[in-house]
Amino acid sequence: MKAQRLGAWIAVILGASYFVIPLIGTIEFSLRMRRGEYSLDAYESVFSDIQFRETFGYSMLMALFTIVFGMLLVVPTAYWVRLRLPQMRPVVEFITLLPLVIPAIVIVFGYLRMYNSSSYLPLTGSTTGTNALLVFSYITLSLPYMYRAVDTAMRAIDVRTLTEAAESLGARWTTIMFRCIFPNVMSGVLSGAFITLAIVMGEFTFAALLNRPAFGPYLQLVGANKAYEPSALAVIAFSITWLSMGLLNLVSRFGKARPAKA
Amino acid sequence: MSTVSTPMASSVPLINKDRVIDWLGIAPFIIFSLLFLIIPTLYLVAGAFLTPEGDFTLKNIGDLFTPSIMSAYWISIRVSVASALGGALIGFFLAWAVVLGGLPASVRSTLLTFSGVASNFAGVPLAFAFLATLGRTGLVTIFLREWFGFNLYGTGFNLLSFFGLTITYMYFQIPLMVLILTPALDGMKKEWREASQILGATNRQYWTMVALPILWPSLLGTTLLLFANAFGAIATAFALTGSSLNIVPILLYAQIRGDVLHNANLGYAIALGMIVITGVSNVLYLMLRMRAERWQK
């Protein structure tokens, strides 16, 4: 038993160093810009770069649109499948898993062929259209995570009783949706939102091939041209992931601590 | 159940209208997924079997078997297999350590939280992190040189290579394995171990004759999932090696950008090849997961 515990400690320490050493390496490298001493010059250089601010803001905005429109699509669907179409559940679940199976680069390749400027729906012909297509692609990409998060939260509430109670009080379907269902699955909505934020902020493939000025392609560009800034950017990107996942953990813990009463 | 059936029974004459409304409820989702997921994919699949003029052909599929495209697939498969196996092996030991190794509960929750973050830390920033660590002037490279006089790059090591890409991918592969395998190991009942010990089994016999036969669908299934995960990834490789390492997603990227193969429909065939490979490994994963869940009831 003692040998087993020793083995377990060794495994965890080796595993932890695999995770932690690259992080230390990145932080250390990002401080090395000034010769002979550690400084925050790389971060200053990053933050003063107008392109950093523009692309970061652009990706944040895209993430926000993705979350809002994604949830408007996912929550009613998950609700409706639970309430009226349980026989469609396997089909809907299968569709939400497809983005994990079909590589992103294949999906975007399809978009570029289907929505080019000479097609029936020339989304890539205009800036607004391309931005919309990017948001749609991000919704597709985060569909597996959003749907799962929302559906798990919905399992904890009695959708049918809530709906019938609201209906008998004379609520219209918009009232049922936004004042009954959404507030009750908020923990799921927020978990889905944070993981979507983490995915969208660093996403590269869609944004690069649709030629949009997002944070992912900007990171790649800086990586190809500068020495110390990429590390500073990696630290920033990792903090965003940490922040999103930390908030996600917090939300799901609160969601569990406060069981929804139907 | 009776409360459900009563309103249904009273609305018998309206049943057709109800049906229509039922289906309208998920229409937005179905239309969205058709437009932005299913039809674009089918468009490429169909295009793989057409000539630029629109006639049926198998030539595009046949052209996949030219040396340059085959070598791209081969490198991709090798990197994905290596990072999946490495990730699965290390991930298994980590999951084993926190579930069965008798470690404090805090170690377990820390590792699981960290795995949640690290499995999502992919893409371009991951490449930067490894360049800063194992690149020519990276922390570990310099540390080894100055403290041990060991020149990492003198041994032929190169981060911008098959091996470098593999260890970089393992950064998100290992945590994914930990996340999926921990519940499977939690499902190993204590009674099984006790029963085998009472019957006089050694630790080794327990693992080879009880634990692994139960766990192998989970282990193999998750390894397949890791394989597909690595196969479709592009951003990390692109930022790490530029286009010097010719993996399939990077070849496809170049084809989309500039038709480097001088045949648009050959690009569709490459995409089809990727879908087939990730599709088959995901289907096998789902089948194995169903098998694994037999024991979790």
TrEMBL record, chain A:
Regions crossing the membrane: 7-27, 56-79, 91-112, 132-150, 185-210, 230-251
Signal peptide (residue range): none
Membrane topology listed for this record: Multi-pass membrane protein
Organism the protein comes from: Rhizobium anhuiense
InterPro entries associated with the record: MetI-like, MetI-like_sf
Protein name as annotated: ABC transporter permease
Localization in the cell: Cell inner membrane; Cell membrane
Keyword set includes Ribonucleoprotein: no
Gene Ontology, cellular component aspect: plasma membrane
